Amino acid sequence: MKPLGKRLEGPMAAKLQSNDPKTKSPGSITFSKAATHGQWGRAWEVDWFSLASVTFLLLFAPFIVYYFIMACDQYSCSLTAPLVDIATGRARLSDIWAKTPPVTTKAAQIYVAWVTFQVLLYMLLPDFCHKFLPGYVGGVQEGAMTPAGIVNKYEINGLQAWLITHLLWFVNSYLLTCFSPTIIFDNWIPLLWCANILGYAVSTFAIIKAYFFPTDARDCKFTGNFLYNYMMGVEFNPRVGERFDLKLFFNGRPGIVAWTLINLSFAAKQQELYGHVTNSMVLVNVLQAVYVLDFFWNETWYLKTIDICHDHFGWYLGWGDCVWLPYLYTLQGLYLVYHPVQLPTRYCLGVLLLGLLGYCIFRVANHQKDLFRRTDGCCLIWGRKPRVIECSFTSADEQKHRSKLLVSGFWGVARHFNYTGDLMVSLAYCLACGGGHLLPYFYVIYMAILLTHRCLRDEHRCANKYGRDWERYTAAVPYRLLPGIF
Q1: Shortest CA distance to 354 belongs to which of 267, 257, 283?
Q2: Reported pTM
Q3: Backbone angles phi and psi of 4, in degrees to 5
Q4: Rounded to the nearest 10 degrees, what angle do helices 188-212 and 105-124 cross at?
Q5: Which residue(s) pair with 401 in the sheet?
Q6: pLDDT at 43
Q7: For the chain, which domains are there?
Q8: What distance in Å separates the CA atoms of residue 417 and residue 361, rounded to the nearest whole number?
Q9: Buried b (16+ CB within 10 A) or exposed e, 177-210
Q10: CB 395 within 8 A of CB 29
């Protein structure tokens, strides 16, 4: 259950080697033996709030997804109508469940074929896009060093998988007609059950693997609570064999490759039902395709984000990427099948500009941070030498180190201005659906809560790490997301 913007590890700092003779190399700053008992990855111990949150999500997240999809299928996307019907006695839970399509053999065949195809593309076809696309970095790439000191290699071929998949989709839609382009929408709820089965199966496999045959036992984190271990994961980079990395595969595929196919299927259904595709549906398809293509174009960069460098693989990622992402991130397109909206031209252009502006802020802000780190601050940001705050911190092995915190470019506007770009893009998705219902606005509400929580969590870690230097930084850049407001 990831947000739009991927994050580089830690604050926007460039790590420097200290003059202290005890200082180690940047790799050993994070990955010494002492550090393996520090703050890498998720928590070592579970407090009551974390346990309550984990229990709530395990119990209710699947029902939240079902509720949204059921509301569209049975109540024309009204979020309140099911509750009113139940409260007034016009319907019972059993009545709603009885009207819900069950898993079908056809849906199971579609889903198995889909996942199998993506596994084959991931495992068997070396990347060739990097050979002819200028600026694209693909092929075999190294990830960040793990706490155990392991540097994993990855076959970066997500863009290639996306292109092949969509090429075959369009060839089928316009030439072969082996199946209808509305096939995803027509089997949407039966496919939901298949996605749940895979999500729980891979999460259960991951926890069993972590206990009995981990890829590297030094990269495991166990707590005394099984539910927390199951949800947040134990293994850092669980692999089957040498090449099949569960975290990278499920983070990027099959859910994100499917995202644009799902939207195309919704557009095809709108065409079938109404004889045309509305500009709002085109807008949603375009804006969300920009994000998906950005994700795969920057897949190598993604190896250095917190999703890979910080998160463990458990139910949160396994089930979340199979179910939460493809079913709730595509609510705008689903809504527009039931409620086609033709937007005024000026409004449509305004939403498009908002989405593209948000994307540019997100991408440029992350580029500035990445450039700053790769060059240890020896670069130009907005045509000038970057302004920095020198700071120091003590790692888990009690060694002192120096860092630089960036206060130039977008990082001088707000401390998490890349998240601001995320929220602008998210809002554009929702505004494309007009103002008729609350349901399509779930995404921006969810993103606002999630990113605000991430801001607070990140800053808590940075405050503990940098102490008074962090106070100097927050004084120089006083706002987190919105200058003058928050």
Answers
A1: 283
A2: 0.87
A3: -60, -55
A4: 50
A5: 393
A6: 56
A7: 1-32+343-486 (1.20.120), 44-342 (no CATH)
A8: 8
A9: eeeebbbbbbbbbbbbbbbbebbbebbeebbebb
A10: yes
Q: 232: closest CA among 42, 401, 387, 73?
A: 42
Query: Residue 298, SS3?
Result: coil
8 Å CB contact between 150 and 219: yes
Structure tokens at 228: 């927390």
CA distance readout (Å), 92 to 76, 87, 95, 127? 18, 9, 5, 52
| Cis status, amide bond into 254, omega within 30 of 0 | yes
pLDDT value for 373 = 83
For residues 261 and 107, give the distance between their C-alpha atoms in angstroms, rounded to a whole number.
16
- Read off the amino acid at residue 475: A
Which residue in 446, 434, 252, 324 sits closest to 69, CA to CA?
324
Strands (E), 395-446: 400-406
Predicted pLDDT of residue 45: 65
Under-70 pLDDT residues of the chain: 1-47, 395-397
pLDDT of residue 186: 96
Q: How many CA atoms lie within 13 A of 236 on its CB side?
A: 26
Pairing mode of beta strands 388-394, 13-16: unpaired
d(CA 402, CA 23): 10
Cα–Cα dist 330/453, whole Å: 23
Which two three-digit tokens encode residue 395?
């790692």
Establish how many alpha carbons lie within 13 A of residue 148's alpha carbon, considering only the half-sphere containing its beta carbon.
14
Closest by Cα among 220, 209, 211, 197 to 244: 209
Among left, alpha and beta (phi > 0; psi -120 to 50; other), residue 382 is left
Question: Which residue in 419, 424, 309 sits closest to 358, CA to CA?
Answer: 424
